[in-house]
Fold this protein.
Amino acid sequence: MEIKDIEQDGVAILILSGRVDDRDARGLEQKIRQLIAKGRRRLVLDFQQVELFAPAGLRVLRLVAQMLKGGGGLALCALGSQATNVIRISGLAGQFIIAPTREEALDRLFASCGLSPLTVAVSRILGDAALATPPPAGERSPLANEVARWLGESPPPSG
């Protein structure tokens, strides 16, 4: 298995190719753990080039989903029929954001993190990296603070 990682809109996207079997699942887990250790809390796994997805990969997906609870998220996209069947038969499909395309996976991931389409669109236009880390609950993102400043709103009270 090969893993290519790119970043889009503050999200780490892992483009997987080849086979995700017992041996390769460990490598995938290590790569994801490294990204999380670097502060990446939103991940999309692109399965478009995956030839085989073995049940060992499910363990990795479940582990990652648990690691990202409460301030992040995991989305899967472009699943082939074989990977879809493995996930569906396992009964775990409801634990993941699953989308047909990478763009839709990003949109669903942002929505699950409470980011509006407008916030994402403005961030894309401005090239803002504020989407990389979600703000703590009840606080505004740096982008929201900047827009509020432009609109003449006072800053939020300090906690």
Notes: The chain has a mean pLDDT of 86.
